TrEMBL record, chain B:
It is a multi-pass membrane protein. The lineage of its organism: Bacteria, Bacillati, Actinomycetota, Actinomycetes, Micrococcales. It comes from Cryobacterium ruanii. The chain crosses the membrane at residues 12-34, 54-81, 143-162, 190-210, 272-292. Belongs to the binding-protein-dependent transport system permease family. LivHM subfamily. It is found in: Cell membrane. GO terms for molecular function: L-isoleucine transmembrane transporter activity; L-leucine transmembrane transporter activity; L-phenylalanine transmembrane transporter activity; L-valine transmembrane transporter activity. This is Branched-chain amino acid ABC transporter permease.
TrEMBL record, chain C:
The keyword DNA-binding does not apply. One of its GO terms (molecular function) is ATP binding. The keyword Glycoprotein does not apply. PROSITE patterns: ABC_TRANSPORTER_1 (PS00211), ABC_TRANSPORTER_2 (PS50893). SMART domains: AAA (SM00382). InterPro entries: AAA+_ATPase, ABC_branched_ATPase_LivF/BraG, ABC_transporter-like_ATP-bd, ABC_transporter-like_CS, BCAA_Transport_ATP-bd_LivF, P-loop_NTPase. Keywords: Amino-acid transport, ATP-binding, Nucleotide-binding, Transport. Residues 2-234 form the ABC transporter domain. Belongs to the ABC transporter superfamily. This is ABC transporter ATP-binding protein. GO terms for biological process: L-amino acid transport.
Length: 344, 298, 235
C-alpha cells in the first residue's frame, strides 16, 4: 500500500487550501461586479471540462452542451423557486409542486441528473452518428430543447421564462463544482476507461478490434458530460436569477466550444485555461466595445482569433498536454487544485 | 379543410423550399468536395439580403439589380472566404474546418453589426411584386412567380454547367474522389473555388428572395436557414445537387405543412420538427434520397 | 529518366520509406516488388507529388520534381494509375478519359488519343456513355490505365494493376503493359504478382521495410533461388 501522504497529494492539498484562502480573500474584498466574473469562471470551468469528455476525449464533437444546460437550468429553477414567485409563475402546476421548495445544492444535483437521464436516450440516437453529422444532430438537439422551453407554457412560461430565483450561486458553489468536475474528469481520463476513450477517439475501429466497447464508452462520456452540463446550467440560472430560452442559446454552446478549442481539447488543464481566458477576454472586449461604441467588435475579435487558432495552432494552447502541478501552482494559484501530475 | 387550402399551403411550401434548395446546392457542393459544413453559408445569404436592400429602396433602379448585384457580389465573397479561411486548412481534421466555419459565420454577422446596426430593418418590395393574383382560388404574388422562375432558371443553368463544362466535370470528379482528382492533374483548388463561387452566388440570390418573403432583415437572419438548408441537403443526399434541390423543396413543403395542418399550438415547434426530421433521416437513411454511400465514393 | 536518390518519407512518426534509391531509364519497364507495407505505394505517391518526402531527391529528365504539385508533375509527363483503380464511378467513361487529359490544351490531339484508347480497349468504346461504376473490375482497370495515358505521359506509374482480377484479366492487363512498352512507353510497375511482373520487365527492385534490398535485371531475380522462395512464392 502506498501512503496517502505522497508528495503529489501534499501539493494537491496545499493547492486546495490556497484556493480556499484566495477565494475567501476575493469574497471579502471584491465588489459584486468582479465576484460575478469570478463565479462565471468557475461555472465555465465546469462546462468546458465536461464538454471536453466528448469533444476532446472521445472525439464526439457535440454542439448541444447548452441543451443540457437548459435542462439543468430549468429543472433547478423550478425546484428552488421561492413560494411567492411560484404562486405567480407556476399557477398551472399541481398544488403539491407549488408548495415544494428544494434547497439549492439538491436542485443543482437534480438538474444534472435529469440532464444525464435525458442524455441516455438522446445519446443512443445521436451517437450512432459521427463527425459532422453528430455535430449537426446535437445542434438539432439544442434547437429542439429550446423549442420546448419556448413553448411549454405551464412549466417554462415560454418566452417570459422563469424569474425571481434566489441568487444562490456564489464563489464557493461555482468553484466547488469546478473542483468536483475537474476531479471527476481527471479521474475518468486517467483510468482504464479514459485510455479507452482516447483509443476510441484516435481510431475507433482499432479500439473495437482490441475489445473496447466503443459505443458504451462514447455513451458514458456523453452522459457524464451532460450531467455536468446540467449542473453548470443550474449554477448559471442561480447566478442570473432569471432564465429565458435565449439564455441557453447557440452562442453559449459556441462560447464553450471556443474555450475548449483555445485551451486545447484533450487537455483537462487546457479546459481550465481556456475557460479563464475566454471568460475574462470577452468582458474586457465588451467594455472596450461600449466605451468606443463599436458594437460587434468583441465578437469579431474573438471569431478572428478562433480562425487564427484553427489555422496556426489547431491543438490549442495545451494540445493534449497537461500542466504539471508544481509549476501550475506557482504560476496560477487562483485555479482549482484537483489537477495532479500527468501519469506515466 | 378545402382543396384550395391544401394547394395554398403547397404553394407556400414550394416557395420556402425553393429558397432552401438554392442554399442547399452551395452547401452540398462544398461538402461533397471538402467534407466541410459551411456554417457561414447562411450568413452570405444575409449579406446578399443587405446588398439587395440597397437597390430595393432606390426606386429608380430596376428590380433586376436587386437580384443580380447580390448574386455577383456574394460569388466574390464566397471565394474570398474560401481562400482566406478555409484554404489554409486543407488536409486538417474535419472538426477544425467545422469550427473555422462557425468562426467565419460569427465574423460575418458581427461585421455586419459593426458596419450597420444590430437592429432589424425593413425590406419592402415595390408594390406590384407583392400584389396578389387569384388563380382558381389560390393566391399567388408576383414574387412567388418570380421565385419559381428564378429558381428553375438557375437550376437549369447550374446543371448544364456542372454536367457539360470542364470545370463542372472536375468538380464532380473531385467530389467523388479528391485523391484521384489530384492524381490525374486536376487543380482541385480551382474546383473548390468554383464550388464556392457558384454556391455563394446562389446564396446571394436566396438573400433577395428570403428578404422579399419576410420583409425584414437583420445580421443574424442567415444562420438558421443555412443550417436548415444543410438539413435539406442531408435529406436529399449530401453531395448530390439533385438531392439538394429535392431535399430543399421537400423540407420547405414539410415545414409549411407542419405549421399549416397541425393545431396552432404546435407551430412554435417548427424548428424542432425540422431537426427531428433530420434525426430520423440520418438514422433510417443516412445517405439521403439520392446520396451515394461513402463506400461507393471511396 | 527518373532518378530517386536517398528518399525518406514518413507519415507522422511512422517511417514508410528510408534511404531508397531507384532509377528508371527511358524505354524500360521497371518492376518494384515487395510485401505489403514495404513502401511501394508510398514511393509512387511521392513521385507523383501526393506526398512530400522528408528528404531525398527525385529528378525527372534531369530536373528536380520534389515539392511540385501533383498537377505540375502530370504536366511534366508523369502519370500515375493508382492502386485500387480510383476511376470516377459516377462519371461516364468518356468523361473519365477527358479528365485524364485535363491539363492538355490540344483539343485535336485529345480527340485522337481518345480514339486510340478506344482502339486499344474496345470494351470501353462500347460502353463509353455509361457510368464507370457499372464496369467490371477488369474494365475499370483498363479505364484507369487509359485515363492515365490520356495525359500523354512519358513515364507511367502503374500501381498494382492486376490486384483483385481474375487470371484471364491479369493476362490481358499485362499484355497491355507490354504493348505500351513496344510503343516506346517507359513504365514503373508496382506489383504483388511478382512472377508475372518480372517476366515482362527489364529490371526490378525488391523493397523491404521501406528500402531497396535487392536490385538487378528481372531475369536474374527470377532465377535467384532465395528470392524465388522469399518473394515470388515459388520453389
Amino acid at each position: 500500500m502506498k501512503s496517502i501522504i505522497t508528495r503529489k497529494n501534499v501539493v494537491l492539498l496545499g493547492g486546495l487550501v490556497l484556493l480556499v484562502i484566495l477565494l475567501g480573500v476575493a469574497d471579502a474584498t471584491l465588489n459584486n461586479y468582479y465576484l460575478r466574473i469570478l463565479q462565471l469562471i468557475g461555472i465555465y470551468i465546469v462546462l468546458t471540462a465536461s464538454l471536453n469528455l466528448t469533444n476532446g476525449f472521445t472525439g464526439d464533437f457535440s454542439l448541444g452542451h447548452a441543451a443540457f444546460m437548459a435542462i439543468g437550468g430549468y429543472t433547478s429553477a423550478l425546484l428552488t423557486m421561492p413560494l411567492a414567485a411560484r404562486a405567480l409563475q407556476l399557477a398551472e402546476l399541481p398544488v403539491w409542486f407549488q408548495e415544494f421548495v428544494s434547497p439549492f445544492p439538491l436542485a443543482t444535483v437534480f438538474g444534472g441528473i435529469l440532464a444525464a437521464i435525458i442524455a441516455l436516450p438522446v445519446g443512443l440516437v445521436v451517437l450512432r452518428l459521427r463527425g459532422h453529422y453528430l455535430a449537426v444532430a446535437t445542434l438539432g438537439l439544442l434547437i429542439i430543447v429550446k423549442s420546448i422551453a419556448s413553448n411549454w407554457e405551464p412549466v417554462t412560461r415560454g418566452a417570459r421564462g422563469l424569474s425571481g430565483l434566489n441568487a444562490e450561486t456564489n464563489l464557493w458553489w461555482a468553484f466547488g463544482w469546478a473542483v468536483i468536475t475537474i476531479f471527476v474528469v481527471w479521474r475518468m481520463v486517467h483510468s482504464p476507461f479514459g485510455r479507452s476513450m482516447i483509443a476510441v477517439r484516435d481510431d475507433s475501429v482499432a479500439a473495437a478490434s482490441r475489445g473496447v466497447h466503443v459505443f458504451r464508452i462514447r455513451l458514458v462520456a456523453f452522459i457524464m458530460s451532460a450531467f455536468f452540463g446540467g449542473v453548470g446550467g443550474a449554477l448559471l440560472a442561480h447566478q442570473l436569477t432569471a432564465i429565458t430560452p435565449p439564455t441557453f442559446s447557440f452562442d453559449l454552446t459556441f462560447l464553450i466550444v471556443i474555450m475548449l478549442v483555445i485551451g486545447g481539447s484533450g487537455s483537462v488543464t487546457g479546459s481550465v485555461i481556456g475557460a479563464i481566458i475566454m471568460t475574462i477576454l470577452p468582458v474586457i472586449l465588451r467594455d472596450l466595445e461600449r466605451r468606443f461604441d463599436l458594437p460587434g467588435v468583441s465578437q469579431i475579435i474573438i471569431a478572428a482569433a478562433l480562425i487564427a487558432f484553427m489555422i496556426f495552432r489547431r491543438q490549442g494552447l495545451m494540445g493534449h498536454r497537461e500542466l504539471h502541478p508544481s509549476t501550475w501552482f506557482m504560476k496560477k494559484p487562483a485555479t482549482p487544485a484537483s489537477v495532479d501530475a500527468p501519469q506515466q | 379543410m378545402t382543396m384550395n387550402y391544401i394547394l395554398q399551403q403547397l404553394v407556400n411550401g414550394l416557395a420556402l423550399g425553393s429558397i432552401y434548395a438554392l442554399l442547399a446546392i452551395g452547401l452540398t457542393m462544398v461538402y461533397g468536395i471538402l467534407r466541410l459544413i459551411n456554417f457561414a453559408h447562411g450568413d452570405l445569404m444575409m449579406l446578399g439580403a443587405y446588398v439587395s436592400s440597397i437597390f430595393i429602396s432606390a426606386t429608380v433602379v430596376p428590380i433586376l439589380f436587386a437580384v443580380m448585384i447580390p448574386t455577383l457580389l456574394m460569388a466574390v465573397m464566397g471565394l474570398i472566404v474560401e481562400r482566406t479561411a478555409y484554404k489554409p486548412l486543407r488536409g486538417a481534421p474535419e472538426v477544425a474546418m467545422l469550427i473555422t466555419s462557425l468562426g467565419v459565420s460569427r465574423l460575418i454577422q458581427n461585421s455586419t453589426v459593426l458596419a450597420l446596426s444590430p437592429q432589424p430593418r425593413a425590406f419592402s418590395l415595390p408594390g406590384d411584386l407583392t400584389k396578389t393574383m387569384n388563380v382558381g382560388g389560390i393566391r399567388f404574388t408576383q414574387l412567388d412567380v418570380l421565385t419559381f422562375a428564378l429558381v428553375i432558371v438557375l437550376m437549369v443553368l447550374l446543371t448544364l454547367y456542372i454536367n457539360r463544362s470542364k470545370t463542372g466535370m472536375a468538380m464532380r470528379a473531385s467530389s467523388e474522389n479528391l485523391q484521384a482528382a489530384r492524381l490525374i492533374g486536376i487543380n482541385v483548388n480551382w474546383a473548390i473555388g468554383a464550388a464556392f463561387v457558384l454556391g455563394s452566388a446562389l446564396a446571394g440570390t436566396a438573400g433577395f428572395l428570403w428578404a422579399s418573403r419576410y420583409g425584414i432583415i437583420d445580421p443574424f437572419m442567415g444562420f438558421l436557414p443555412g443550417v436548415k438548408a444543410f438539413v435539406a441537403a442531408v435529406i436529399g443526399g449530401i453531395g448530390s445537387i439533385r438531392g439538394a434541390v429535392v431535399g430543399g423543396v421537400l423540407l420547405g413543403v414539410a415545414e409549411i405543412g407542419f405549421v399549416g395542418f397541425l393545431p396552432p399550438e404546435f407551430s412554435g415547434y417548427r424548428d424542432a420538427f425540422v431537426f427531428t426530421l433530420l434525426l430520423i433521416v440520418l438514422l433510417v437513411r443516412p445517405n439521403g434520397l439520392f446520396g451515394a454511400s461513402e463506400v461507393e465514393r471511396a | 529518366m527518373l532518378e530517386i536518390r536517398n528518399l525518406f518519407v514518413a507519415y507522422g512518426k511512422i517511417v514508410a520509406v528510408s534511404k531508397l534509391s531507384l532509377t528508371v531509364n527511358e524505354g524500360e519497364i521497371v518492376t518494384v516488388v515487395g510485401s505489403n507495407g514495404a513502401g511501394k505505394t508510398t514511393t509512387l505517391r511521392t513521385v507523383s507529388g501526393m506526398l512530400k518526402p522528408q528528404s531525398g531527391e527525385i529528378s525527372f529528365k534531369g530536373r528536380s520534381i520534389v515539392g511540385l504539385s501533383p498537377e505540375a508533375i502530370v504536366t511534366r509527363g508523369i502519370s500515375h494509375s493508382p492502386e485500387g483503380r480510383m476511376v470516377f464511378g459516377r462519371l461516364t467513361i468518356t468523361e473519365n478519359l477527358k479528365l485524364g487529359a485535363y491539363n492538355r490544351k490540344d483539343a485535336a490531339g485529345v480527340k485522337i488519343d481518345m480514339e486510340r484508347m478506344f482502339e486499344m480497349f474496345p470494351v470501353l468504346e462500347q460502353r463509353k456513355s455509361q457510368r464507370a461504376g457499372t464496369l467490371s473490375g477488369g474494365e475499370q482497370q483498363m479505364l484507369a490505365i487509359a485515363r492515365s495515358l490520356m495525359s500523354r505521359p512519358t513515364l507511367l506509374l502503374l500501381d498494382e494493376p492486376s490486384l483483385g482480377l481474375a487470371p484471364l484479366l491479369v493476362e490481358q492487363i499485362f499484355d497491355v503493359v507490354v504493348e505500351l512498352r513496344n510503343e516506346g512507353a517507359t513504365i514503373l510497375l508496382v506489383e504483388q504478382n511478382a512472377n508475372e511482373a518480372l517476366r515482362i520487365s527489364d529490371r526490378a527492385y525488391v523493397l523491404e521495410t521501406g528500402t531497396v534490398t535487392v536490385e538487378g535485371p528481372s531475369i536474374e531475380l527470377i532465377n535467384n533461388p532465395q528470392l524465388r522462395a522469399a518473394y515470388l512464392g515459388l520453389d
